[in-house]
Design a protein that fits this description.
Distance between the termini: 46 Å
Strand order of the largest sheet: 10-11-12-15-14-13
Number of strands: 53
Low-confidence stretches: 9-18
């Protein structure tokens, strides 16, 4: 006779799932407990085991009796962490980006759309459970009296038997039992030193659960204690989404390590090299007291007269050159200024260029397109520069290595126009004498963050580069010159969700049925496309542009005569209006042309597209900073706009973030805006004939930090969801439209930042 499964079918849109015969958990108790909703099909319980990971039962994601088939949920899925009382708003609601099922056990790891930083994950125990041991179980499932309780429940159970992969348990009280909705919930031992996760709920007879006639109350749980290695390997990350990547022998073990900046956080990470092919050890944060996004153009060399690798950087704000001496054990000492006046110098690299035995540095002077060299003196100083190359303006991402086996330092660079990797061989003469440039890898237009070093066990200099977020290794070969077929290092890359974005907008860019999001990465100026999915999260992001910090007020509409969404933005320095036409491919934009489509937009802010005059063309609205009025430029459908008129004469200078969407039950475009002083959110309802009806307050406060607002159509209810972002924290929220009872939005799902 089969024991009943524990995944609860969600009967209504608001159904929730708890341990029967136990006690209600007080607010804030066992905050690592998680409630998992798989679409409207299953409701389960889980446990936070790392900042981005929840463990639960694989059966929670089954459809038609089959285990989950892919790495992405097939239905919109959300996880609540740290919300003991489901009727409240504590804790976090998160999306699910990745599923990692165990191959043989009813166990599954869920990757979250953002890290949870204010809840301590439960420790994954490696100690086997013992017969007669007492474990505590928490769950959101059914009780003896409630189908859908609104609070986490808990009870204690005794281990009745221990098998190879499971344990049997029975309640320490007659009433304690495990019900539907408790599937995947944690069973843990409580010790003086803390809480240890031992198992998760698998199946139960469910005696005493509401609606059940069975009298037996014992249950089976899946052991986790022997799966610690599987958990560690399944969640291990390779280096990803990095900037200012460098390599060097930082730890004193004779192996080249990787060091790079995480752009969303400003953290500097060291990935120690190991003896395993294409593998780095667990990353270590270096100098957490330094905001590393304040620096650019990192390079590594032995500059200080000892055998330790040092880090050399340019401070962006001051254009000063700073040396962070390495300590030979993976750390960096206090910075020392070794130069100034480095504005206009980019792509800093270190190598032995003049053959005197000391590490020199070189950089491209962008005003002259010359490659200049500053000879090192071996004591942390550098002599005056000389020109060692001309016409280097098309090259970027310079790195140095010994790739052609002649013993001289070569330079590899990325050609801006073609995306090819070019090698300039060093020569016996050194200095500015370079061999003929050789193409060593082609067509990597999205490559960035190049670094070189001995990164696998064969002893040859290799190259690494990031494409989108994926790190690739281009191995050196015994013959030198051309690099081997690129490979991905061991580990995984998370499906990064929107975070740390400026000027975010939504539209139909990938030509499928889902709305996508694009935005400018705050720290790097890269333009990222986040493809929409049907699972409530975004697919892995795609880099679709660079250098976008010079544009503001991005907006999307159908401005020309085709049926593709176009992108419009204001040049921050000139005030010109530029158009990037949508294309059939959907993942990029047509060339913006040599002339802008508008001039004199300096004094206009919060540019937004929509249909505000009751015709079929997309119009533009913006706030006139000088008068505070909202002005409209009527669209004509040919990428031109009529002369502006006042659309609303109130003082819009008191308002911050602004978004267009259909937020109520009619078919007119509305606006929502944040009142900066109070944090209130206001709705300006569109009306027949154009313009707006009287504004309506839709949130009483708490929106002041939301400096990005955009709408997104994600379902068929006729109302747009709202996406809000806070560039300071890097966080993004997605608020589903409230139906019924609108206009307004329900509890948001959180996305980003990276860590």
């Amino acid at each position: 006779m089969l024991v009943a499964g524990l995944a609860a079918g969600v009967l209504t849109g608001s159904a929730v799932s708890a341990v029967s015969g136990g006690e209600e958990v007080p607010d804030g108790g066992y905050p690592f407990s998680a409630k998992v909703n798989f679409g409207e099909l299953h409701s389960c319980t889980g446990a936070l085991v790392a900042s981005r990971w929840v463990v639960t039962a694989k059966s929670c994601f089954a459809e038609g009796g089959s285990a989950p088939a892919g790495a992405v949920p097939s239905r919109p899925t959300s996880v609540l962490v740290g919300r003991t009382n489901l009727a409240g708003n504590a804790g976090h609601r998160l999306g699910v980006t990745t599923l990692v099922p165990h191959p043989t056990r009813n166990v599954l790891l869920v990757e979250l759309s953002a890290p949870v930083t204010d809840v301590t994950p439960v420790e994954w125990s490696t100690a086997a459970p013992l017969a007669q041991e007492t474990l505590r179980v928490t769950g959101y499932g059914r009780t003896a009296t409630e189908w859908v309780p609104d609070r986490l429940h808990s009870a204690t159970f005794t281990v009745s038997e221990v098998a190879a992969t499971t344990i049997g348990v029975i309640g320490t009280s007659a009433a304690a039992t495990i019900c539907k909705g408790d599937g995947g919930g944690p069973a843990f031992r409580e010790t003086e030193s803390g809480v240890e996760l031992v198992a998760i709920n698998n199946t139960s007879w469910q005696g005493g659960c509401l609606g059940e006639t069975e009298t037996r109350t014992d249950a089976t749980q899946t052991r986790l204690d022997d799966l610690a290695d599987w958990f560690r390997e399944s969640t291990r990350l390779q280096p990803y989404a990095l900037t200012n990547t460098v390599t060097g022998e930082f730890t004193g073990d004779g192996r080249d390590d990787l060091m790079a900046v995480e752009p969303g956080t400003g953290k500097l990470w060291l990935y120690p090299g190991t003896a395993i092919d294409r593998f780095w050890g667990d990353r270590i944060q270096v100098r957490s007291d330094v905001s590393w996004t304040d620096y650019r153009d990192f390079t590594v060399g032995q500059f200080g007269g000892d055998a330790n690798e040092d880090l050399l950087v340019i401070e962006t704000a001051t254009a000063e050159l700073w040396l962070f001496p390495g300590d030979g054990a993976g750390g960096l000492g206090e910075r020392v200024q070794v130069g100034s006046g480095w504005q206009g110098k980019t792509d800093l690299v270190a190598g032995q260029f003049n053959r005197d035995g000391y590490d020199d540095i070189a950089a491209v002077a962008r005003s002259t397109n010359e490659l200049r060299m500053w000879p090192g003196n071996g004591a942390g100083g550098f002599s005056a520069s000389t020109v060692i190359g001309k016409r280097w303006g098309n090259l970027t991402e310079l790195v140095v290595g010994r790739f052609n086996r002649d013993g001289y330092d070569d330079i590899v660079a990325l050609a801006r126009d073609t995306g090819d990797l070019l090698m300039y061989p060093g020569s016996a003469a050194g200095g500015g004498v370079w061999g003929q440039a050789i193409t060593i890898a082609g067509g990597g237009s999205a490559l960035s963050s190049l670094a070189a070093g001995k990164l696998n066990p064969d002893g040859y200099d290799d190259l690494i580069a990031t494409e989108h977020d994926q790190l690739w290794l281009y191995p050196g070969t015994v013959a030198g010159g051309l690099l081997g077929e690129r490979v991905a290092p061991i580990g995984r890359v998370p499906a990064l969700q929107p975070h740390r974005l400026l000027e975010a907008v939504t539209g139909e860019f990938t030509r499928d049925e889902y709305a996508d999001l694009i935005g400018v990465e705050k720290d790097t100026g890269r333009l990222w496309l986040y493809p929409g999915t049907g699972a409530g999260v975004w697919a892995p992001r795609i880099q679709v542009g660079t250098g976008w910090t010079g544009f503001r007020d991005l907006t999307v509409g159908r401005f020309n005569a085709d049926s593709y969404d176009d992108l419009l933005a204001i040049n921050s320095s000139t005030g010109d209006l530029w158009l990037w036409p949508g294309t059939e491919s959907g993942t990029d934009w047509g060339y913006k042309g040599t002339d802008p489509v508008g001039w004199g937009w300096h004094g206009n802010e919060r540019l937004t597209a929509g249909r505000f005059d009751d015709d079929v063309y997309d119009d533009l609205v913006a706030v006139d900073r000088n008068t505070g009025k909202l002005r409209m430029w009527a669209g004509r459908g040919n990428a031109t706009w009529a002369t502006s008129v006042d659309l609303d004469t109130a003082n819009w200078n008191t308002l911050g973030a602004l978004a267009r969407g259909q937020f109520n039950d009619d078919s007119y475009d509305d606006l929502v805006a944040v009142e900066e002083d109070t944090g209130k959110l206001w709705l300006y309802p569109g009306k027949a004939g154009g313009g707006f009806d009287d504004r309506v307050q839709v949130a009483s406060g708490g929106w002041a930090e939301r400096d990005e607002l955009i709408s997104i159509r994600s379902d068929q209810d006729g109302r747009d969801a709202l996406i809000a972002g806070a560039s300071a924290s890097g966080q993004v929220w997605r608020y589903p439209a409230r139906t019924p009872g609108g206009p307004g939005w329900d509890d948001p799902t959180e996305f980003g930042p990276i860590s």
